[in-house]
Amino acid sequence: MQQERERLIELIRTLPDDKIKTILDFVNRMLNEYTVQGDEEDELLMG
User: Fold this and answer.
1) Is residue 47 part of a domain?
2) pLDDT single digits (tens) 6-26
3) pLDDT over 70 for what percent of the chain?
4) Domains of the chain: total
5) Residue 24 lies in a domain
6) DSSP 8-class letter at 14
7) Are the beta carbons of 20 and 12 closer than 8 angstroms?
8) 32 within a domain of the structure (yes/no)
């Protein structure tokens, strides 16, 4: 797992800033959607 992490970090370091921003925006959007879906599932289970 550590090797993959290091390879990913090295790959990211070679990217231009605009590409890094695009990737981070995408990851944040996916994390936010996952969090919202998780909250909705909790409400359904409790309700």
Assistant:
1) yes
2) 999 999 899 999 999 999 999
3) 74
4) 1
5) yes
6) T
7) yes
8) yes
Residue ranges in 1-47 assigned as alpha helix (H): 2-13, 17-46
Supply φ then ψ for residue 16, to 5 degrees.
Answer: -70, 155
Residue range(s) defining the domain that contains residue 25: 16-47
Tokens matching residue 15: 């990217």
Q: Is residue 11 part of a domain?
A: no
Q: How far apart are CA 47 and CA 29, in angstroms?
A: 27
Tell me the C-alpha distance between 30 and 40, whole Å.
15
pTM as predicted: 0.55
| Residue closest to 42 by CA, chosen among 34, 19, 21, 12 | 34
Which comes out higher in pLDDT, residue 27 or 37? 27
Predicted confidence at residue 24, as pLDDT, reads 92
